Fold this sequence. Notes:
By secondary structure, this protein is an all-alpha fold. The protein has helices at 7-19, 34-55, 61-79, 88-100, 104-119, 126-136, 138-147, 153-173, 175-182, 189-194, 211-228, 231-234, 237-259, 273-284, 286-297.
Amino acid sequence: MMSKPSIAEAYAYCLQLARSHYENFPVASLLLPKRLRQPVCVIYAFARTADDFADEGDAEQITRLSQLNAYSAALAKIADKSYQGDNPIFIALADVIEQHHLPFSLFEDLLTAFKQDVVKSRYANFDEVLDYCRYSANPVGRLLLHLDAQDTEIQLQQSDAICSALQLINFYQDIEQDYVEQDRVYIPLDELHAAKLTETDLVKPDTKRIATLLRALYRRTAIMMQEGFPLGVSLKGPMGWEVRAMTLGGIQTLALLAKQSNHQLLTRPRLSRKMVLGILLKSMSKRVYKKECERLLSLSDV
C-alpha cells in the first residue's frame, strides 16, 4: 500500500501537472510573484482535473457527475477540516486554502460550471451565458486577487468583467470545435433565431451569414473589457504585470477576431511571438498598457 503523500510531494505533483498542460495563457507565469506560483499551480491542478472529468474521454454522464460530486465532497471535508484522503491535489489545496484564507465558495463555483458542462449544452440568451461565465471564469480571477491580498470590491468587479470577457473570447474562437467535438453552442439561441439562423450556420465554411451576429457579440465583449481593464492599472507589483499581460492578450485576440473578413470568422487567430513579446513589454508600464487597451478597444471594427 502506498503511503499518503507529504505536503511537499503533493505540491510537487500539482506543479508537474500544471507544467504538463498547454494553455493559451500560461499557468504560474514567471510574471507572478514567486510566492504565489505554487498556490496557483495547486488551484490549476484542481480546476484542470475537474474540467477533464466533464470533457475528456467517453464516460457516461452519470460517471462524470459522480466524479465531480466526489470533488465537492472532498472540498466539503477540507472546509470542516476532516479530509483524510490521499489525493495530492486535495492535500495541497487544503494547505493553500488555510494559508491564504481563500473562500471555499469559489472552488465550489468552479465545480458548478463543470457539472453544468455535463448536463447543459445550449444557452437560451446572453444572460445565461454570462451566468455560466460567473461560475467557470470569474472565480479564477477572484482567487488570484485573494491570493495577492488585492481584493477590494471594485477590483473584484473589474476582475469579473475581464474573466467573463476572456471566457467569451474563447467561445468565439472555438465555435466550430465546441459544436463538432462537444455538441455545445455558447452563442445565445434567442439572438441566433432572431437573425433567422440555425446552429448549422455557425459551422459553415463561409461565415458571412453569421457575421452580423458575431460582430455584435464582439462589441458587447469589448464593452466588458472596457469596464475591466483598469484593474491592471490599480494592481501593484508582479501581479499587476501578470493581469495586464493576460488582459491585453485577450483584447488583442478580440481585435484579431474582429479584423477577420466576414467570410472567415471561424479562423482561430494566433498571437505571433512578436505580438506576445509586444504584449509583455507594453504590460510593464501601466501608462502604456492603458493607452494600448484604449487603442485596441476603440477600433471601429471592434
